[in-house]
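Moderator note: this is an archived Q&A kept for reference. The question asked for a predicted structure of one protein chain; the sequence and the answer are reproduced below.
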Amino acid sequence: MSDPAFRVGVVGVGWAGQQHLAGYAALPDVEIVAIAGQETDVLAELGERYGARHLFQDWERLIELPDLDAVSIAVPNFLHAPIAIAALKRGMHVLSEKPLARNAIEGREMVEAARSAGRVLDVAFNHRLRGDIQTLGEIIRGGQLGTPYYAKASWMRRRGIPKIGSWFTNQQMAGGGPLADIGVHVLDYSLFLLGEPKVISVTASTYRELGTRDIGGMRWDAAGGGSAFEVEDMAAAFLRLEGGGTLVLETSWAAFRNPDDLIDFHVMGTEGGAELTAVGATKAKVGDLHVYRDVDGEIADYQPAAEPGLAHAGVVANFVRTMATPAEWAANDGSVALRRAEIIDACYQSATENKEIVLP
């Protein structure tokens, strides 16, 4: 690549980091200049595959490079804020994995850094780019369901605790369990589908029943370290929305339920309803989508067709497109992701204090 429009670095060489790398490599106007990661063999292989000129084990060395336009962050949650803030202060755009940070306090510092630098801060909410969610969003925005007033959504695993003993199950490093990990995706695509209503209050419960027990098969991977299981393994939340609407969320890493993971969204509106059910969760590239309506007093239900979504490739492409459009930078300062973080924080506070929490 002789004269790329953008030079990027990626911090993190796990699954998520590799999705970012593949996304950038698919774009003609981007050069992957540097990669940072702790796994030296994986780092070397990815560096060779993508032609990165610089390979580091320390993220600090990567962001010191003088010719980087942007950095992708795909590392444990406790590192999101320090890396993003340092990169933004050096004038780089930032694409971070979800959640934005461990909590809204750190997230707010990231957003303030983006605003001060006049740079983009984006978060990889890839599930809103599922083809079935995009199709349902068009139906809702087109008015076929009228005004949505009640929605219920979930991401439920039976056996899906990631690396017990690693940063995933360490409260200080992760900030939370499935609510912060996969529940934030459910919150994001639900609010996206509902048209970004303001959440005025939350009532939530969290449970730590199975992660602390030696139950065979409840974890995805072998033990990842010496930390105790400090986070929840299931959470449920009742969200009151401005205008009188309701959103109910459920999420689990481990629960005695159907063995197939589930991502879903059910909505009722004044003129119709819809159900999206992806049994198998991320392995189900297109879920089962139904729309329920009456026309002239007769049932007029139908099943819309949907194509597989763009996933991380779409997230990366949108990020690069935003970088190429300075007029859009100010509107992409991480504020949407910060609102998600504030809601997640309120859910944890509600569960701890056993009461409804009103959001400002």
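Archived answer notes: The chain has a mean pLDDT of 95.
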